[in-house]
Amino acid sequence: MLLSVLCVTTVSAQKSKKNKKVFIEGTVTDANNTPISNAIIMIDGAKTNSMTNAKGEYKIKVKPTAQKIGVFTFGSGIKEVAINGRDTIDITFSSVQDKQANAGQDNGEEGVGVGYGTVKKKNVTTQINSIDGSNKKYASYRSIYDMIAREVTGVRVNGHTVVIQGSKDLFGDVPALIVVDGVPTDNIENISPTVVKSIEVLKGSAAAIYGSRAYGGVILIKTKIKSE
Question: Would the pTM count as exceeding 0.70?
Fold first, then answer.
């Protein structure tokens, strides 16, 4: 009986230790080693309620099974690093936006438009959904909002507001930034589905080139009118 009690106690202790959360802390800085305040801390790709203070410092409690810690910033984009059992992790951004803007389509690799530049698909770590507007079936939709709601995966349309799945802050859903032929706009109701060339949904680092306006992601619309 004593042996059984000891075994149960040992197993319980191991489970308790395995489920016990741990603290991770550190500092977030930009390419000039300047502290970044109000940056949102992410764990395994999910945003949390933790943010950096005025000194760029953060402290967060995570499960021992957590694999990656990331940071979402309004000016420098998003960066993720492996935890690897560490309890102190400092994160420094390089010039992410410059790298995205200067990336091209060399070596015959297909590129993806992100803001004012282009990146290779293999270098885009976040999901990009897109549709080819040349498909004749899209001409049957009454409005472009209806077209987006029914054909673009991972988004929700409410009136003239488009929300990309998972785009939330502390106050709720964050609407996506809508860009038509390179120009940000608040209303696209006058665009007919018949003139749409393509629609792309950009999230995370792919949308970061637009800065704080793209906190909720970007709906990138290209029309046939612009390309002609």
Answer: no
Residue 13 belongs to a domain with what CATH number? 2.60.40.1120
Task: Please report, as a single letter, which amino acid is at residue 175.
Answer: P
The 10s digit of each residue's pLDDT in 109-160 is 444 444 434 444 443 334 456 777 777 777 788 888 998 888 888 888 988 8
- Which SS3 state, helix, strand or coil, does residue 31 take? coil
Specify whether the CB–CB gap between 120 and 205 falls below 8 A.
no
Reference 206, options 108, 65, 99, 57; nearest CA is 99
Beta bridge partners of 40: 51, 72
Residues 19 and 105 in one domain: no
Domain limits for position 205 = 97-227
142: domain CATH number is 2.170.130.10
Output the furthest CA–CA distance in the chain (Å, rounded).
84
> Would you state the torsion angle of the CA atoms of residues 147, 148, 151, 157, taken in this order, to the nearest 10 degrees?
-110
Please state the domain count of the chain.
2
Regarding whether 101 and 171 lie in a shared domain, the answer is yes
For residues 203 and 205, give the distance between their C-alpha atoms in angstroms, rounded to a whole number.
6
